[in-house]
Automatic annotation (TrEMBL):
Residues 15-86 form the (S)-ureidoglycine aminohydrolase cupin domain. InterPro entries: RmlC-like_jellyroll, RmlC_Cupin_sf, UGlyAH_Cupin_dom. It comes from Solibaculum mannosilyticum. Signal peptide: none annotated. It comes from the Bacteria. The lineage of its organism: Bacteria, Bacillati, Bacillota, Clostridia, Eubacteriales. PANTHER family: OS04G0445200 PROTEIN. This is Cupin.
Length: 93
């Protein structure tokens, strides 16, 4: 199974990809289990998160594009309140 992929992208790149038209989601500081039935691509507008899966912890935050593969079971640890745009089912870049 592939792992979480994090990329830095500029606001202009996000605009060119149409990311600001995607659905939005947010939450406060918290820790919770999450499973991905299908892949998700997310762009963080604000916040800081650590996601642990298969013994590996990945950190990401505002301005980063993150890919979560289908079938991933993980634990989200939101360190700073998060607001993100997201879309399901996109292929990994």
């Amino acid at each position: 199974m592939s792992s979480i992929v994090v990329k830095d992208i500029t606001r202009q790149e996000a605009e060119e990809r149409g990311i600001f038209k995607w659905s939005t989601w947010g939450c406060g500081v918290s820790t919770f289990d999450w499973s991905y039935d299908e892949s998700e691509t997310a762009y963080l507008l604000e916040g800081e998160v650590e996601v642990t899966a298969n013994g590996e912890t990945v950190r990401f935050g505002a301005g980063q594009l993150v890919y979560f593969p289908a079938g991933l079971d993980c634990v989200w640890s939101v360190k700073k309140p998060v607001r993100k745009h997201y879309k399901f089912g996109l292929p990994q870049e």
